[in-house]
């Protein structure tokens, strides 16, 4: 991995306050990360994103699947997914350094439309994959980081860099996977629409026939595509959405455990506590107390 990228990450995080933790930046959708020790699994919902490790290593767990990526590698997430992520390699001498960059599907679609010939979609696979960053993408990310030094230039220059990032993703060794994010009316877009419906009202019972109809698929085909892309069933997906929202409510001080359970659609507080502990590894009250002391990276 380029030492210039590591230096740029450290410099920008020092400017933003220094220390460990995630850092929001002036570039919309760009978050920088540093950790001087391994971290506990932290839940969050990812949008389509490019997640890069410049130093150290990270692990992301999605349903029944686990993805490990390290220095010089990137995790690409193709649709909105609830995951557990943790830093697995970091020290004070060599801290974990990374960044997450949200991807604009419409920009990717515009770039895809200009490619001749366009990439051929690969076989059905998870909506998440790990690949090597490559020199061209690394250079784009470095220029994006340096752009933070000139905030007034961001609105003018950032769109071009983002289009270039999309170009290299769509013409690189994983183009067959990346292009599925942007294919109009493809399985990824249709499942993304179903996910949007699930997120609109997480308290509503899951109806596979209605979701399948919205995705213009038969129930069996819908279930197969959903499980392939997300590594979980629609019911499991909704359960994770509910538990993540309940955790957010408790962390924000907007509800206690029983109140959060009912707000997200649980009828039984004891069932909520059992499923919460199964997902997060500890009961709600204890988990929230620990989470308030450690930043999610």
TrEMBL record:
Name by which UniProt lists this protein: AraC-type DNA-binding protein
Leader sequence segment = none
Alphabetized, the UniProt keywords read:
DNA-binding, Transcription, Transcription regulation
- UniProt GO molecular function: DNA-binding transcription factor activity; sequence-specific DNA binding
Q: What is the lineage of its organism?
A: Bacteria, Pseudomonadati, Pseudomonadota, Gammaproteobacteria, Lysobacterales
Pfam families referenced in this protein's UniProt entry, alphabetically: AraC_N (PF06719), HTH_18 (PF12833)
HTH araC/xylS-type domain sequence ranges:
192-290
- Gene3D superfamilies per record: Homeodomain-like
């Amino acid at each position: 991995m380029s030492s210039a990228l590591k230096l740029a990450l450290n410099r920008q995080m020092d400017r933003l306050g220094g220390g460990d933790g995630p850092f929001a930046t002036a570039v919309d959708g760009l978050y920088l990360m540093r950790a001087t020790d391994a971290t506990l699994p932290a839940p969050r919902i990812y949008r389509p994103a490019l997640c890069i490790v410049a130093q150290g290593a990270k692990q992301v767990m999605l349903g029944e699947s686990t993805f490990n990526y390290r220095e010089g590698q990137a995790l690409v997430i193709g649709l909105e997914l609830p995951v557990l992520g943790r830093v697995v390699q970091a020290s004070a001498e060599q801290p974990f350094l990374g960044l997450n960059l949200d991807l604009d599907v419409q920009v990717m679609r515009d770039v895809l439309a200009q490619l001749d010939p366009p990439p051929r979609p690969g076989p059905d696979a998870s909506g998440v994959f790990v690949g090597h960053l490559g020199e061209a993408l690394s250079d784009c990310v470095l220029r994006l980081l340096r752009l933070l030094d000139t905030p007034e230039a961001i609105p003018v220059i950032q769109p071009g860099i983002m289009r270039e990032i999309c170009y290299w993703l769509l013409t690189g060794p994983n183009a067959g996977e990346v292009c599925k994010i942007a294919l109009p009316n493809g399985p990824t877009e249709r499942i993304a629409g179903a996910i949007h419906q699930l997120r609109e009202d997480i308290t509503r019972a899951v109806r596979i026939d209605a979701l399948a109809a919205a995705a213009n698929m038969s129930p069996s085909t819908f279930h197969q595509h959903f499980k392939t892309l997300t590594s979980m069933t629609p019911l499991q997906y909704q359960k994770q959405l509910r538990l993540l929202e309940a955790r957010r409510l408790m962390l924000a001080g907007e509800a206690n455990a029983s109140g959060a359970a009912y707000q997200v659609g649980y009828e039984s507080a004891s069932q909520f506590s059992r499923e919460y502990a199964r997902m997060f590894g500890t009961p709600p009250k204890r988990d929230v107390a620990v989470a308030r002391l450690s930043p999610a990276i």
